[in-house]
Amino acid sequence: MEQVTTVGIDLAKRVFALHGVDGAGRVVLRRTVQRDELVELVAGLSPCLIGMEAGSGAHEWARRFQAFGHTVRLMAAKFVTPYRRNGKNDGNDAEAICEAVGRPGMRFVPIKSAEQQAVLAVHRVRQGFVEERTSTINRIRGLTVTHPALGWGFVVGVVAIAGLPPLGIFMSEFLIVSSTFARQPLLAIALVFGLLLAFGALTLRLTSVAFGEPRGSTASAEASYVPMLAHIALVLCAGIYLPAPLVVWFQHVARLLG
Fold first, then answer.
1. Which range of residues forms the domain containing residue 50?
2. Do 72 and 132 fall into the same domain?
3. pTM to 2 decimal places
4. Cys-Cys link to 98, which of 19, 138, 183, 224 (CB 3.0-4.6 A)?
């Protein structure tokens, strides 16, 4: 094989396409390999310039290829597309990558370390949760505008689940604080402050979600209040009063669980 100076690799899950040229721009390498053959093939090449489209897997491959003495460059896919001469397939993509990586004005993506990718993954997962939370809040706000009773039902349900007064769960929290005052007064102050802070934050968020102004369309829609009222009734019954047979059943389950 003649001296390869530039190689473009089209990454995939199992089959990878490679396109390589020499110093004069003549094609000297054009083939496809399986995933487990790629490292062996690249390791057998003399040090050269390797181009790939940027992606989460590309950074791992780049670190491996750099260990063999190659110069690796990653590019955004949108910058590679103009260099594709024919229809889109693996071989043509690899050829376009090989052409693009040699351009002097090309903009490259820095190769990330494994630690940097791990931190970035955490940030992206968090961003996804934030987007989902915002979307859910906006949907609830829209429903409470078109169906005001849903807003109050939502408030009552959250109050019951959170154990705010006058529901039964609040009594257990009150007993914990009382016993803590008797034994560790300083610790009880911190506990009360934490509970008040949590209740205050919950109240502010709850009123904003249930009665705030929604974003987007708020067109009227038909909805049944029966499921909501039924669930509220069950929550209130469980929070304020539990029937004796149900208490006995809970005690029996507790004994079975030890």
1. 6-101
2. no
3. 0.57
4. 19
**Top-confidence residue, 138 or 21:** 21
**What tens digit of pLDDT does each residue of 186-217 get?**
777 877 787 778 777 777 777 777 766 655 55
- Same domain? For 96 and 130 the reply is no
Indicate if 84 and 133 belong to the same structural domain: no
Statement to judge: residues 38 and 81 lie in one domain: yes
Would residue 257 count as lying in a domain?
A: no
Residue range 71-95, pLDDT digits in tens: 999 999 999 999 998 888 999 999 9
Helix axes 226-240, 168-183, angle to 10 degrees: 30
Residue 239 lies in a domain: no
109 occurs within a structural domain: no
Domain count, the chain: 2
Percent of the chain past pLDDT 90, that is, above it, reads 38
Q: Is the pLDDT of residue 16 over 90?
A: yes
